[in-house]
Every structure is written in C-alpha cells, then in structure tokens.
Specification:
The chain is mainly beta. Helices cover 2% and strands 32% of the residues. The chain has one helix spanning 152-156, and strands at residues 2-3, 7-9, 14-15, 20-21, 25-27, 32-33, 38-41, 57-59, 64-65, 70-72, 76-77, 82-83, 88-89, 94-95, 100-101, 106-107, 112-113, 118-119, 124-125, 130-131, 136-137, 142-143, 167-168, 173-174, 179-180, 185-186, 191-192, 197-198, 206-209, 214-218. The longest helix is centred in the C-terminal third of the chain and has 5 residues, at 152-156. The chain is globular and about 55 Å long. The model has no long low-confidence stretch (mean pLDDT 97).
C-alpha cells in the first residue's frame, strides 16, 4: 500500500493491501478498500507541473470499493456507495448515498449521480451527465455527449463542440444495451426499453421502445415515485 500526503483515514476503515492512495484523500468510518485499487488518481499535470495540487477526494462513511477500481481525484462518494470490481470513475464526479456502481462501469468526468441509484455492469456514463435519485441503468447502456463526434483533425482545424451528457430525472429506468444521445433529457419515472436508441427528449412517465425510441404508453401508477 502506498499513501500520499494530506490523507485522512478513519481508524475504523479497512484498507486491504496493494492500494495506492494519492494526495488529498479522505476516507470515512467503516469503509472497505479492497486490493489493487487506486484512490485519488491524479490528472496528467501531476507529472509535469510542480504547482499541481490534487483536488480532494472524499469517500464517506460505509463505502465499499471493490478490487481493481480506480477513483480519480475530486470524486465524492456519499454514504454507503458500493463499487463492483474494475470500475473506473473519472475526476470531479459526485455521488449521493446508497448508490451502486457496478462491475466494469465507466463513468467519465464531471458527472453527478443521486441517491439510491444503480449503475449495472459495464455501462458507460459519459462526461457531464446528470443522473437523479432512484435511477436504474441496465447492463452495457451507453450514454454520449458529443453530437459532432469531433476527431483530432477537426479540432486542429478550429472546430469545436460543447460537450453535454444526458439528464436522467428521478426514477428513470433504462434497459440493457440502450443508447442515449447527447444532451437528451429523460423525464421522471420514464422507462427506456432494452436496445432502444433515444434521439430526442422524453416526457415524464413515458415508456419508450425501439430504434429510434418511440412512445408506446405511460408508466403504470404503481411504478411512479
């Protein structure tokens, strides 16, 4: 285990071998950090800029970080967040309480996730996404944030795009292998079927199926929150 500077680890936390903890990390009560994890992974400037300081990473009470997980700097986990093995969470992501980040989930930078949300195995959450409370995202769902799909040569030639991930409001459920395009807003309680491709905003309480996804009915009252 390698421990950086300005680290606060509560005496009840368990760090179980071969863990790298970079600078400016706080680990709360009763947390479990399994082997082969990286906490507070720095940005590239860490290696080139002598003035670089790692943004603070906070793992709040009761969290469990499974083997092979990497949490970048600036990540904040609310109470009782759990990761599966080999999850990757990029810098400056914020999570509410009791959320599950599944095995091999990839979460890009500057994403927010609410309370009691489940991100199932292998889903990809793009940068600048906003995900609410009580959301379910199924296995291998893909979210996107660049509607121009710029290549390096495009940027070299002066083209630009404002990256904007989707917004999933409270209670949304997304089926396995669905794809959600940049900037889409999915309204409260809506259901996106497996393999659907969401190309436009979705009204609250909608069931959407197909490629592209189309409205088929309203969500039953018993499944609304």
């Amino acid at each position: 285990t390698k421990i950086g500077s300005n680290i606060r680890i509560h005496e009840t936390a368990k760090i179980i071998g071969n863990v790298v903890v970079f600078d400016n990390v706080e680990i709360g009560k009763n947390c479990i950090i399994e082997p082969n994890t990286i906490i507070g992974h720095p940005l590239a400037a860490y290696y080139t800029d002598n003035a670089y300081k790692n943004p603070k990473t906070v793992i709040t009470d009761g969290c469990m970080i499974r083997s092979g997980t990497t949490l970048y700097c600036g990540v904040e986990l609310g109470k009782n967040v759990k990761t599966g093995t080999n999850a990757i969470v990029r810098e400056n992501c914020k999570f509410g309480e009791n959320t599950v980040i599944g095995t091999a989930v990839q979460i890009e930078n500057n994403t927010t996730v609410g309370d009691n949300t489940v991100l199932e195995t292998g889903c990809h959450i793009t940068a600048f996404a906003e995900i609410g409370n009580d959301v379910f995202i199924g296995p291998h769902v893909v979210t996107t944030n660049d509607n121009k799909m710029l290549r390096p040569i495009d940027r070299k030639n002066g083209k630009s795009v404002t990256l904007k991930g989707p917004t999933l409001e409270n209670g949304v459920r997304v089926g396995a292998n669905a794809v959600i395009l940049p900037g889409i807003r999915i309204g409260k309680n809506s259901v996106i079927g497996a393999n659907a491709v969401v190309t436009s905003d979705v009204a609250p309480n909608s069931v959407m199926l197909g490629m592209p996804a189309k409205f088929v009915k309203e969500v039953d009252e018993e499944y609304r929150i």
